[in-house]
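A quick aside before the break. I want you to see a complete sequence-to-structure record at least once, exactly as it would be stored in a machine-readable document. Don't worry about memorizing anything.
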Amino acid sequence: MQAMTVALDTLLVPTGSLESYVAAVNKVPMLSEADEQALARRFQEDQDLDAARQLVLSHLRFVVRVARGYNGYGLAQADLIQEGNIGLMKAVKRFNPELGVRLVSFAVHWIKAEMHEFILRNWRIVKVATTKAQRKLFFNLRSARQRLGWMSSQEVEAVAKDLGVETHEVLLMEERMNAHDQAFDPAVEGEDDDLSPSAYLCDTRFEPVQQLERLEEESLDQENLGDALAALDPRSRDIVTSRWLSEPKMTLQDLADRYQVSAERIRQLENNAMKAMRRALGVNLLPAPGQS
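That is the input. The structure line, written in tokens, reads:
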């Protein structure tokens, strides 16, 4: 197996000239299937980080190739490559040599996933896609519109059928993709002053009516919380107060020591109390998973 002396940290983050980076990763020798399997087993079974390093280095050229497929999004290639390298490292960590596939086939999903997330975070100030279905629509619709331009109703129906979504979702995504970010203030003073959002949008947070409504809502919430707590038995009330309403908050073990019971018993009492309060208030007051 040919040794690789290239430092991993110098190739994971493209710096300087992109051409120099591409030339550097192309100089890293590719692995044969046997070498790849051997390195993957060393990493999986012995946690050999040098083996993982060689697997990553030998596939950096593939990340560059994938990144070139996203040239049209207006984002820096170096940033896309860096995100793709993160996906490659995640793939190496999860790769099982017993799957019977090459690492490059396994890693493509992880590489593209990181690039997609980066594109959606940075393509616009306002995120255009938040759900899994919307993300799928974004990338497929953009590809279709590059070929078709503005789509007819028949083309919209065809895209919706192919992707398993409603036609109105396709139209909404097309509208979002054609929208443009607008600065709150005009770019140049005196230029389109009347059209910038600063000219017609106002901040209503500090209006007397708004403030009074918020104060009344907070007062009502406090009153309802007090009533819900008062309906609990003394021990349950003390547990909820000590765990959530006091500073510093007490742990399950602290309360277990106080009441001479197990921490699990305190957790049960807390959950029962929170369920009772949730029913009284009509909101979700269950503690977050793993809270201790």
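Two observations worth writing down. The two ends are 50 Å apart (CA to CA). Residues 8-122 form a domain with the Four Helix Bundle (Hemerythrin (Met), subunit A) fold (CATH 1.20.120.1810). We'll return to this after the break.
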